[in-house]
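pls design
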């Protein structure tokens, strides 16, 4: 899909049910100079990665108090590595960017979108061709040793987990972990500071696929609105910030974003 850093317009059949909403969003995009996109698990749902809290979310199968908690990881790292082996790896390794990911990469190419601030750890924004991505919760394609900080990628972690439980460093014997922010950990300081700066200087924030219930990330759309930006929320379920938004769209994001970005508006 991606050629010489230009995003080719993906093939898609416009869903007539969302063309009106897409036109409203397109008008907001055309009027904006500095857009920030704020994305959550919902933007990747259409690539097969289940969300956390929506219908059929990942948490109905695995206990986040265990696989996503640093305290539990330190107590019993095998729970995370079993979750990785049985579920997480395949979801991430097989996932392809959705039309929404490509649409945001296109807006960056057009010079309309300054930054994507994402809560997602799947790396799909980079895969779609976006370059300015702030990953508030890290990236599960990256791993490192708790003992010596040696780095590993997804393929290396997958190879090691076939014969090791939990996975340990071949240099120092330390436990290896994903480079993601677990519950009980702070967000990377530099990343959140940069995200706040971009939020305060944008004139449009587009939220795509987030329940907006996990802080401090969820404070950013509120901060954008308080700083005078317009706010568009594309989310299947209601969010606590809907009443603040200038536009709320309750449709799956992919086809809508593709229409808003690629369909010439009459
Ligand atoms: N299009 C638009 N929205 C969608 C789609 C879709 N195709 N599919 C699902 N959604 C919406 C759901 O309605 C849901 O409200 O995406 C939202 C996803 O919400 P969550 O599962 O709570 O994900 P997120 O908001 O990213 O969670 C934030 O919580 O568990 C922690 O660290 C984890 O980053 C995550 C954070």
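designed seq:
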């Amino acid at each position: 899909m991606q050629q010489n850093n230009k995003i080719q317009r993906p093939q898609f059949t416009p869903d007539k049910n969302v063309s009106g909403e897409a036109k409203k969003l397109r008008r907001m995009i055309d009027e904006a100079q500095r857009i920030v996109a704020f994305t959550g698990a919902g933007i990747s749902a259409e690539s097969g990665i289940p969300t956390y809290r929506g219908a059929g979310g990942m948490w109905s199968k695995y206990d986040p108090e265990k696989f996503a908690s640093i305290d539990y990881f330190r107590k019993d790292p095998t729970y995370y590595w079993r979750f990785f082996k049985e579920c997480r790896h395949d979801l991430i390794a097989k996932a392809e960017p959705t039309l929404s990911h490509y649409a945001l990469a296109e807006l960056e190419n057009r010079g309309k979108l300054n930054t994507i601030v994402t809560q997602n750890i799947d790396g799909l924004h980079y895969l779609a061709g976006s370059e300015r991505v702030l990953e508030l919760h890290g990236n599960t394609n990256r791993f490192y040793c708790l003992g010596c900080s040696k780095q590993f990628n997804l393929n290396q972690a997958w190879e090691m987990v076939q014969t090791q439980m939990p996975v340990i460093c071949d240099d120092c014997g330390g436990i290896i972990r994903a480079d993601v922010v677990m519950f009980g950990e702070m967000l990377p300081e530099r990343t959140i500071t940069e995200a706040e700066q971009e939020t305060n200087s944008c004139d449009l924030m587009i939220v795509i696929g987030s329940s907006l219930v996990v802080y401090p990330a969820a404070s950013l759309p509120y901060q954008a609105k308080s700083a005078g930006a317009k706010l568009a929320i594309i989310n299947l379920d209601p969010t606590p910030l809907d009443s603040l938004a200038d536009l709320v769209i309750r449709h799956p994001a992919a086809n809508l974003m593709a229409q808003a970005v690629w369909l010439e508006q009459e």
